[in-house]
Amino acid sequence: LEKDVQKAVELFKESMAQDSEVARYMLGRIYYFGENGFKQDQAKGLELIRQSALQGYSQAQDTLGIIHFNGEAGQKKDESEAMKWFAKSAEQGLVTAQMHLSMMYYHGRGGLDVDKEKAVEWMTKAAEQGTEEAWEILGAWSEGESKSRTVTIPMKKGEGPLPINP
What we know:
The structure is a single chain. The chain is mainly alpha-helical. The chain has eight helices and no strands. Mean pLDDT is 83; it is low at 146-166.
């Protein structure tokens, strides 16, 4: 099955005319990353992702949190703003956002105090949805391992965001 990004863009634009937050997010990702030869326009992509997040789409909220956490696309690094978006998305049950929020509590980031109980609570919610990495993190925490490895959240072209490493 060949990818036809131009056709996808046309279909997402049609869906956006019907106020689809999912189409707005997907089109935003295409612009943000410049996927499969499509001309990259991070500013336009960020605006579409932000609009989708404001519409309440959890994946867009989590992605916007990552952008603010890392200070991408011309945004200043703002962990408090990132935490706000992670929390909105986590409340809707998005696993990656639950893991991101958990790590914010665990490390006391984004204006939060270190709160290991809240960290475990959010990581457990992610683990209970079948996320192996969340189970591994909970296991490491219960064994007392609390190494801080990285302070950026990688987001790869064509993939969803990955959780902050413990």
